[in-house]
Specification:
The complex is a heterodimer of chains A (about 400) and B (about 130).
Chain A (H helix, E strand, L loop, with lengths): L9 E2 H6 L3 H6 L11 E2 L3 H6 L2 E6 L2 E7 L3 H6 L4 H10 L1 E5 L4 E6 L3 H6 L13 E8 L5 E11 L2 E6 L4 H11 L5 E4 L3 E7 L3 H8 L1 H4 L6 E6 L2 E6 L8 E7 L3 H9 L4 E3 L2 H10 L28 H4 L5 H10 L3 E8 L10 E4 L4 E11 L4 E9 L8 E6 L2 E8 L11
Parallel strand pairs in A: 2-4, 5-15
Antiparallel strand pairs in A: 3-4, 5-11, 6-9, 6-10, 7-8, 8-9, 11-14, 12-13, 13-14, 16-19, 16-21, 17-18, 17-20, 18-19, 20-21
Helix pairs in contact in A: 5-11
Chain B lengths: L7 E3 L4 E6 L2 E6 L1 H7 L2 E5 L6 E2 L4 E7 L3 E5 L4 E6 L1 H5 L2 H5 L8 E5 L11 H10 L1
Antiparallel strand pairs in B: 1-2, 2-3, 3-9, 4-6, 5-8, 6-7, 8-9
The chains are: A alpha+beta (about 400), B alpha+beta (about 130).
Chain lengths: ~400, ~130
């Protein structure tokens, strides 16, 4: 859980002068945005397409677009329209801020299993898993995607805000003969939405055939692309890793298709929240375990025989005896969003927990939130109260995700 | 949409005010709604509430964040625009018209003259 102290609202003047404020608030409290900001390889491209740039995780990032020309005919831009466009057609997200790395060496899968709860050794080449680097206290250092490229080579994608921590942790804790190779010269684009497969299929029929959590390397025109079938919106989609020098051509190629418009961080956040997906720093942190976070499913069956990963015995204990707090979905009554840090109160007036991600779900046209509540209050249908700007708002515990996933099967 | 008006005044907090007798109509400027983006929720002050100049008395929320709206002048709230509570997008489409927030009976109608006029507000926007 992150530390409190954020005001419930900020002056309008602060907004108008500095629309960035809200995303800066989403950064980790212990991770002040460095100055100067890193720029994305597509920085100019975003600005040409009408992006409003904001600082996030040390990068200047597009938060939303004021689209023009052909793109404006497809989507008027703005968080709401970009969100709905992604659910209806396809959205292009620049996620080049995320950390990419290869891990190379004999026995690399077994070596990484010393640091994560997932079954990595059992992954077939060309398949991927969502997992976490955990600490001895059972907390989460970061959540990440691991791809097996070959028996001696893995590909990792980690959070931007955590990449330095992660790569240092990996280098310090993997055997010396395992090489950690950060890929600073690679960009990452995500194409998400029900039309994503059709668009990718026109460029690479092979990539469009990928199963969910499948990986392949293809050429799109002359660009060597590492393509994954996954995403952070709950929709079918792809992430495409390319050399920095090729990313603009790929972005232009993708938005040339009539289904595609660029989508900013604002909609990326509302899409992932509707999909019930965790944001590191909000919903996950070093004091929160995968059991509390509802991510027990990421612990490999074989790994549950020995619990031989950092924090494993603590996690087993939490599973056996029940975690004291659990991540749940929350639907506030009315239209007022309950933001992260909002206090949750039980029906009997006792403290119940804290909202960790909250906002407005454009697809539901209603406020939605996720938070951690006491175990006895975690059942679906439990009535809670949220304290928003001093007022008590009734709310209900609901199942996650808020919007059903539409991953390819 | 916003029309240039000689008797419309502004604050550096991006509220606008129109005066009719001693009744002031208050809203947020087109610039403010543009910066905020899609509004999803508006909270207005209670009727009869006395508000001080500069007092936070309404809230606007976009998809991602909440912002306070301040009363540009002191007075008593005599009317609120329930329509924007039901459909906050009206503030995005017509911030300085149909998207007004509330009306206050001013304690001192002359205080209106001290607010920024359109030219002064436009100049202020240039400095941001």
């Amino acid at each position: 859980m992150t530390e409190g102290g954020r005001p419930a609202s900020i002056p309008l003047a602060a907004w108008a002068q500095n629309v960035e404020t809200f995303v800066a608030q989403n950064a980790l409290p212990d991770d002040p945005t460095p100055v100067p900001l890193n720029t994305l390889p597509l920085d100019d491209w975003h600005r040409r397409h009408g992006a409003r740039m904001v600082p996030f995780a040390g990068y200047s990032m597009p938060v939303q677009y004021d689209l023009s020309g052909d793109l404006a005919d497809r989507c008027r831009g703005g968080v709401m329209a970009e969100h709905l466009h992604t659910r209806r057609a396809a959205g292009l997200f620049d996620v080049s801020h995320m950390g990419q790395a290869f891990l190379t060496g004999t026995g690399v899968a077994d070596a990484l299993e010393r640091l994560v709860p997932a079954d990595i050794a059992g992954l077939k080449p060309g398949r991927q898993r969502y997992t976490m680097l955990t600490n001895e206290a059972g907390g989460i250092i970061d959540d990440l995607l691991v791809t097996k490229l070959a028996d001696n080579r893995l590909f990792l994608v980690v959070n931007a805000s955590r990449k330095e921590v992660d790569f240092r942790h990996l280098a310090a804790n993997l055997p010396e003969d395992i090489q950690v190779e950060p890929q600073e010269d690679r960009a990452l684009l995500a194409l998400q939405g029900p039309a994503a497969a059709a668009v990718v299929g026109r460029l690479s029929p092979e990539a469009a055939m990928l199963p969910f959590l499948g990986f392949t390397t293809v050429r799109i025109f002359d660009i060597l692309c590492h393509v994954s079938r996954l995403g952070y919106t709950g929709e079918d989609g792809f992430e495409i890793s390319v050399p920095v020098g090729d990313v603009e051509e790929l972005a232009d190629t993708l938005v040339a298709h009539p289904e595609v418009v660029p989508i900013g961080l604002g909609a990326r956040d509302s899409l992932r929240l509707e999909a019930g997906l965790c944001l590191y720093g909000n919903d996950l942190d070093e004091l929160t375990s995968p059991i509390e976070a509802g991510l027990t499913w990421t612990i490999g069956k074989r790994r549950k025989l020995s619990w031989d990963f950092p924090g494993g015995s603590l996690m087993r204990d939490q599973l056996d005896h029940g975690a004291t707090r659990i991540r749940v979905g929350i639907r506030p009554d009315g239209r007022a969003p309950a933001r992260a840090q909002t206090t949750i109160v039980a029906a009997d007036g006792t403290e119940a927990g804290t909202v960790t991600s909250g906002g407005f779900g454009p697809s539901l046209n209603a406020p939605i939130a996720m938070g951690y509540v006491r175990r006895d209050l975690a059942a679906d249908g439990t009535k809670l109260s949220l304290i928003v700007r001093g007022k008590t708002i009734p709310a209900t515990v609901v199942p996650l995700p808020f919007v059903p996933h539409r991953y390819v099967r | 949409m916003a029309s240039k008006s000689a008797d419309k005044r502004f604050t550096k907090d991006h509220e606008w005010v129109v005066l009719d007798g001693d009744i002031a109509t208050v809203g947020i400027t087109d610039h403010a709604q543009e910066q905020l983006g899609d509004l999803v929720h508006v909270e207005l002050p209670a009727l009869e509430r006395s508000v001080a100049e500069g007092e936070a008395c309404a809230v606007v929320e976009s998809v991602k964040a909440a912002s306070d709206v301040y009363s540009p002048l002191a007075g008593k709230v005599v009317e609120i625009n329930e329509t924007i509570v039901e459909d906050p997008s009206i503030v995005n489409s017509d911030a300085e018209g149909e998207g007004w927030f509330f009306r206050i009976e001013l304690d001192d109608p002359e205080a209106f003259e001290a607010l920024l006029d359109q030219d002064a507000y436009d100049e202020y926007l240039e400095t941001l």
